[in-house]
Specification:
It comes from Pseudoroseicyclus tamaricis. InterPro entries: AAA+_ATPase, ABC_AA/LPS_Transport, ABC_transporter-like_ATP-bd, BCA_ABC_TP_C, P-loop_NTPase. Keywords: ATP-binding, Nucleotide-binding, Transport. The protein has nine helices and ten strands. By secondary structure, the protein is α/β, with parallel strands linked by helices. It folds into two domains: 158 residues, P-loop containing nucleotide triphosphate hydrolases (Rossmann fold, 3-Layer(aba) Sandwich), CATH 3.40.50.300; 60 residues, no CATH class. The strands form two sheets. Strands 6-7-8-3-9-10 form a six-stranded mixed β-sheet, with helices on both faces. It has a four-stranded antiparallel β-sheet with strand order 2-1-4-5, with helices on one face. The radius of gyration is 18 Å and the shape is globular. The two termini are 28 Å apart. Bound molecules: adenosine-5'-triphosphate (ATP). Adenosine-5'-triphosphate (ATP) binds next to strand 2 and helix 1.
């Protein structure tokens, strides 16, 4: 087991962002997470990566308790993530952004110019290596967000709504890239509102509502769960519509 959360809770005043969350991520799998706006998806990533500290509960990564570990410690253990809103260093070039990410999160023996060049290649950014991040198109900013996460050499890659705002063709390109990464052994957890893209990659799905896991399992079965249809899709069970 790569990641294990047990009874994790997080509140912001009256708002419950994580409600007794118990879940795991198997090594090598591709897991999807969906839920309405404000359901607690990004908070879950923030709890996993250490941006937020849990009020209670336990988080284990690679079998070690990381509940109180810093963002950097978790990153160096192999937890990489992309942010919903890309936040590169705007005045640094793409290449410099990757070196900075590698410096932050990479285990020493895997940090190299060669590895950075490989990541530029696979993310389709090779010809943008010397372009300032602030001058990139949205698709290339998304690619850079993914490339920065990869530069930390993650075993576990947490992707937060990486397909949002892209055209159908751009989204397809990104999906193929994520599939390739998963096939190369990178474990993926992907939060995404573009459900058809998500379902073409993941083999398991978790649904959150007000910080609580309300369904999980095989994606098609989960999407047809009456509770999920009601909560996420706004479909009444009487309508009897099959989804996905
Ligand atoms: N730092 C914070 N301070 C106060 N409230 C917060 C904070 N972060 C998140 N919240 C609240 O916690 C709840 C869950 O937010 P979160 O961003 O995790 O949801 P989400 O499922 O990722 O939503 P979206 O799909 O809109 O990105 C929301 O009500 C949000 O307003």
């Amino acid at each position: 087991m790569l990641l294990q959360l047990t009874g994790v809770n997080k509140r912001f005043g009256a708002v419950v962002a994580a409600d007794d969350v118990t879940m795991h991520v198997e090594k090598g799998e591709a897991l999807g997470i969906i839920g309405a706006n404000g359901a607690g998806k990004s908070s879950l990533f923030n709890l996993c990566t250490g941006v937020l500290k849990a009020d209670s509960g336990e988080i284990k990564f690679h079998g070690h308790d990381v509940t109180r570990a810093s963002v950097r410690e978790r990153c160096r253990e192999g937890m990489g993530r992309s942010f919903q809103i890309p936040k590169p260093f705007e005045s640094l070039t793409v290449f410099e952004n990757l070196l900075t990410a590698a410096e932050f999160g990479c285990k020493d023996d895997r940090r190299s110019i060669g590895e950075t060049a490989r990541i530029l290649e696979i993310t389709g950014l090779a010809d943008k290596a010397n372009t300032e991040a602030g001058k990139l198109t949205l698709l290339n900013r998304k690619r850079l967000e993914l490339a920065r996460a990869l530069a930390t050499t993650p075993d576990l890659l947490l992707l937060d709504e990486i397909a949002g705002g892209l055209t159908e063709g751009e989204c397809h390109e990104l999906v193929e890239l994520i599939k390739d990464l998963n096939a190369q052994g990178v474990t993926i957890v992907w939060i995404e509102h573009i459900v058809h893209a998500l379902l073409s990659v993941v083999s398991r799905l978790i649904v959150l509502e007000r910080g609580k896991i309300i369904a999980q399992g095989e994606p098609k079965a989960v999407m047809n769960d009456p509770e999920v249809k009601r909560s996420y899709l706004g479909i009444d069970d009487d309508m009897d519509e099959e989804v996905a």
